[in-house]
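Render this sequence as a predicted structure.
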Amino acid sequence: MLQLLAATSNKNKIREFQEMFSEAGNNVLIVSPATFGGLPDIVEDGTTFEENSAIKAQKASHYADMAAFADDSGLEVDALNGEPGINSARYAGPDATDADRIAKLLENLKGKTNRKARFVCVISLAYRGNLVAQFRGEVSGTITDAPKGSNGFGYDPVFIPDGYDKTFAELGPEVKDAISHRGKAFALAAEFVKQELSTMDDFEFV
C-alpha cells in the first residue's frame, strides 16, 4: 500500500483528498500531518501556484521521509487583476476567517460589472524532497453579490461555476468534487498514482 502524506493542516482539504483518492481503492492511504505531530512551518514564498505547491510537497516529503503531496489553490478575479490569487488564504490577514475574506472580496468588487473569475489548483507530488510531478486544474465562473449556501469552505459561497446557477456551497460536495479545480487536478494526480501502482510492486517515485 502506498502511504501519501497530505501536506496540509486544513481538515476540509484532507477530507476532500481522502474522498478523491478513494477511487484508487485500498492501495492508497492518505496520512495526516497529525500522525507526525504536525509539520514544521513551511514558508510559501513562491510567486505562482506551481512554486508554492512544490515547496510544500518537497519540504513535507523530506521531513517525513516519504511520498507527499500538496496543493496550492486560489481564486483569480478578472476585475481585480487576478487577485486574490496565491494570496487567497491570506487575503484579509493571517487570522481572518472565510467570512472575512469573502467580505473583503465583495467590498473590492463593489461597482464592478465584470464578475468573471476562476479557481485554480496545482497538485505537486514529491518523494524524499524531490519533485515528481505536478497537475493543474481550473474552473471558470462568476462571483455573486452575496454569499449563498452552507456547504464547502473558502470562497465557495460566492462562486458560481459556468453552466450552473448555484454556488459551490449550494451544489454540495458530490457535484463540486466532480467539476472543481481541485477535483480536476486530483483526477490527474490519482490517475498518475494508479498507473505507477499498476507497474511497480514496491511504489517508488524515483
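Summary. The CA atoms of residues 133 and 204 lie 13 Å apart. The chain has one domain: 2-199.
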